[in-house]
Specification:
4-stranded antiparallel sheet, mainly beta, Metal Binding Protein, Guanine Nucleotide Exchange Factor, Chain A, 3-stranded antiparallel sheet
């Protein structure tokens, strides 16, 4: 699977995990040069507190376009530190 934004592959893996329709990419499959930690956090009742990344490609920033659970709750430990996307990031094979 590939995560693409602004015509750039920003993550690629054959080992994504699908949860609630979102592909979660292993942390080592993201291209770190495109990510900057965000101050945003949200809480999911069964996954825990999510942290976000801003994604920047070719001088354009997509704020909070990626999220992950650094300390997932027990029910979601399988996606701890895996990264998922939204806000126009295309997920394709």
């Amino acid at each position: 699977m590939k995560a693409i934004w602004n015509n750039q592959i920003i993550a690629e893996s054959d080992a994504t995990i699908v949860v609630e329709g979102n592909h979660y990419f292993p942390a080592d499959s993201i291209k770190k040069e495109f990510y900057k930690p965000s101050e945003t956090h949200t809480v999911c009742s069964w996954k825990g507190t999510a942290s976000y990344y801003d994604v920047t490609v070719a001088g354009e920033t997509n704020k909070d376009a990626a999220w992950f659970y650094p300390e997932a709750l027990p029910e979601a430990k399988n996606i701890e530190n895996y990264v998922a996307f939204w806000k126009g990031v295309e997920i394709t094979e």
